[in-house]
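To: structure desk
From: M.T.
Subject: fold request, one chain
Message: Could you run this one when you get a chance? Sequence is below, nothing fancy, just the single chain.
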Amino acid sequence: MKKKIAALVLAALSAAGTLAASPASAATESKFPPYGCDSSRYGLLFGEGISMTCFSLPRPSDSYRVVAHCASGSSFWYTAGHWVPRGFGPSTAECHGGLLSNAYVAGYHVDDF
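Reply: Done. Structure tokens follow.
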């Protein structure tokens, strides 16, 4: 009986570890911005933000926005920046955390329109 309980506890712990690790592995992207873009990360109170300026994009488009892949503990979500005309001003996306958990930018991508 003790062996069955120990096996059940180990199975529950391994399942919880797998679920907690999956959001971090889902945001595996390059650390460098797309060709023709420049990005910078900045700190916030309980969070982090990303700012991106694009002068040329792979597809012909007039505007773009940056979408941040935010993570905090076992939570994972997306935050989209504002649409910006190509070559003008940065598009920024910010990840805000709670009082007891900081959020950070785990990855990002660029939407063009």
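Reply (cont.): Strands lie at 37-44, 47-54, 63-72, 75-80, 84-85, 91-96, 104-112. Let me know if you need anything else for the meeting.
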